[in-house]
């Protein structure tokens, strides 16, 4: 975003950008409907040529039907920072990160979790594997492009997180990282992730991901597999926007069908990883519509199968993505 803004305003002063999304979601599971309005602002603030501060917050309300057959809804709210980090760009190959950051394990946590990016309202069943449940680390990381060539590139991220019981910056003592290979001609990315929990009963986590976006096509394929001490699983998601009837901005080109298949497998009965306590399979069928002005309508139907019972899940939502400078930049 900083690069796009600098391109528009030339060598302007370092102007912070405010971005994010506003959404309203509904979730109907086994006949019970929950309503979730949410605002998720993001701040990206460059400081000179080498420093960068970024943060994302969440402000949400949750309206859930009362239990035991009572009429009405229970109401709760949450306001807090998702992460807050400072980046030091040491060179074209090394960026040093400090603060509260999204754990670099797999792809969903860092790339797809924002509400204005995710195609489906729910994250994958295995989204907590490898990110130490909280999805956030408190400490430091080193990341960047190890090798960048015309035919391929390799990027990396390595981190260490301290233990923190702070309500705002809750994290577990852990370490790990991710390495990815990207082939630009094929538009194919393959990566491997590793994480280790260093507090309590120490555990290892392993993961792989494959992303493929064919050239000159609006088709995308994304997938992950992850394994922990007590469970493992995978998800595969495909989406497509038709381009043969007037391009992406035609009324047909704005339609985006999505399909995701996922499974989890218990290794033992210790459910410390937030995954289902029994083997589960789930198929998600989504149909999004990309309106003008960065507004999206999300709809989906899911069927989850497990020995504890099968369930239908219906979800709808609307999301608006905003982006503007904190103040007007000056030409130099």
Automatic annotation (TrEMBL):
Top-level taxonomic group: Bacteria
Protein name: Transporter
